[in-house]
UniProtKB/TrEMBL annotation:
Gene3D superfamilies registered for this protein in UniProt: 3.90.660.50, FAD/NAD(P)-binding domain (3.50.50.60)
Name the record gives this protein: FAD-dependent oxidoreductase
Pfam families attached to this UniProt entry: Amino_oxidase
Signal peptide: none
InterPro entries assigned: Amino_oxidase, FAD/NAD-bd_sf, Zeta_carotene_desat/Oxidored
Region (Disordered): 340-371
Amine oxidase domain boundaries: 10-274, 300-402
Length: 411
């Protein structure tokens, strides 16, 4: 009686953890050489891309607690996010939640009664429209806060991003501590993937890497065999499957499944820079760089919704981004030398980083398309953008759906 979790991204890891905690025997299968999926460490230890969590991401933070990794996620900017506007030269600290805007020093530009009402209107029911259309009358708040938040949380340009989904994100920022921002102190390897695998191993759930599921055999609405190429696993009557793979793989394995078809890229640029000092996180407006994460081991820059930027060469991206981040580093007094010439840098391009969160999303897939097979993955959660939070929640929901399915029906 084994549950085969296919895909060791965060959704698969969260599903596996929920299952072993519920007393189930779990086998984890991963196609790549390492676990973590879209939140992984590269062979040299660099993160594929900077990952930030908000206090509102309660399931993701709870998951970190369960794997003993919560301490590794630090809050670099407890006094509000430092934001430099490269066009106007204005530097300020900004609170992400309107609850922090009582303090004028932490208020973004463009907060007026009218723009606050536009924010509130996002929470009301009504036909969906793009974020750009919803804030057409409030360009200053759109530029200073709404656009950076949309691009960061929805990875979709404001002209196409769903105002309704942004409203759902903003509503969750209202609670106490919900707008606090956390990042991994060392990186996704040591602060997320390794502790998750170690915790699972303690529960007897081991990972097989390089093990790509080629096809699922189905009979009478059940999965009966999993073909991994080098081996075909025949499923017993009590065995079950959590399919925690990205949407395009899920659609290949289960033809006809409704999945998101369009994705948006994220470009990350990692500069070599070994310099002791605290972890820092800075926002930039009006340039190519959007967020800068400074850690003792290097400086990483994120460009989300990077349709145009993803085509730049490493050298062209570094030549544009380094002067922007250097300006911010000097302006906010970050310690250490910040030479004019960019240090060596490497770009990581995730071309299908997340689904695009536009208007009229496809219907969510069924959680349990086959009697003994459930789906997990950031793309399976309606009304949540594709993030670590939705990945964890989807994994937990998949584990819960399997427990419900295996419960005897009362007479
Ligand atoms: C650059 C970047 C930056 C991001 N920044 C943030 C952020 O700041 N905050 C945030 O919350 N989220 C962020 N995200 C989103 C977050 O990483 C994802 O939402 C999350 O990791 C998705 O997890 P998942 O398990 O659903 O999918 P995946 O991570 O895609 O996991 C699926 C796994 O299945 C494996 N697989 C695929 N096919 C098969 C097969 N046939 N057989 C076996 N295994 C298979 C894959 O190799 C992969 O390991 C970012 C994503 C990227 C790419």
């Amino acid at each position: 009686m084994t549950v085969h979790v296919v895909g060791a991204g965060v959704a698969g890891l969260a599903a596996a953890l929920a299952l072993v905690r519920g007393g189930r025997r779990v086998a984890l299968h991963e196609a790549a050489p390492v676990a973590g999926g879209r939140a992984r460490a590269l062979p040299d230890g660099t993160d594929n891309g900077t990952h930030a969590l908000l206090g509102a991401n309660r399931a993701a933070l709870r998951f970190l607690g369960q794997i003993g990794a919560r301490e590794g996620w630090v809050e670099p900017e407890p006094a509000g996010l430092p934001v430099l506007d490269l066009e106007t030269g204005t530097a300020r600290r900004v609170a992400l939640s309107p609850l922090g805007w009582g303090d004028a020093n932490r208020r973004p530009e463009g907060v007026t009664l009218g723009s606050l009402l536009a924010l509130l209107r996002l929470a009301l029911p009504g036909p969906d429209r793009s974020v750009a259309a919803a804030f057409a009358g409030h360009p200053r708040l759109l530029r200073a806060l709404v656009e950076p938040l949309t691009v960061a949380a929805l990875n979709t340009p404001v002209a196409e991003a769903s105002a309704r989904l942004l409203g759902a994100v903003l509503r969750r920022l209202g609670g106490r501590g919900a707008a606090r921002l956390f990042v991994a102190r060392q990186g996704l390897g040591p602060d997320l993937v390794a502790p998750a695998l170690a915790t699972l191993a303690c529960h007897g759930a081991n990972l097989r890497t390089g093990s790509r599921l080629r096809s699922v055999t189905q009979e009478a609405g059940r999965a009966t065999a999993l073909d991994f190429g080098e081996a075909v696993l025949v499923l017993g009557p009590e065995d079950a499957v959590v399919l925690a793979v990205p949407p395009w793989e899920a659609a290949r394995l289960l033809p006809g499944l409704p999945v998101p078809q369009r994705h948006a890229p994220i470009l990350n640029l990692h500069f070599e820079r070994v310099e002791e000092g605290p972890v820092r996180f800075i926002g930039l407006l009006g340039g190519l760089a959007q967020w800068v994460l400074v850690r003792p081991g290097g400086v990483s820059v994120t460009v989300s919704a990077a349709d145009a930027a993803v085509g730049l060469t490493d050298a062209a991206a570094a030549a544009r981004i380094w002067p922007e981040l250097r300006q911010a580093a000097l302006r906010f007094g970050l310690p250490g030398p910040w030479p004019e010439a960019p240090p060596p840098a490497r770009a990581v391009r995730e071309r299908r980083a997340t689904p695009r969160h536009g208007l009229n999303p496809p219907p969510p897939p069924p959680r349990r398309p086959l009697a003994n097979l459930v789906l997990a993955g950031d793309w399976t959660m309606p009304m949540l953008p594709a993030t670590l939070e939705s990945a964890v929640r989807s994994g937990e929901a998949a584990a819960a759906a399997l427990s419900r399915a295996s419960r005897p029906v009362p007479a």
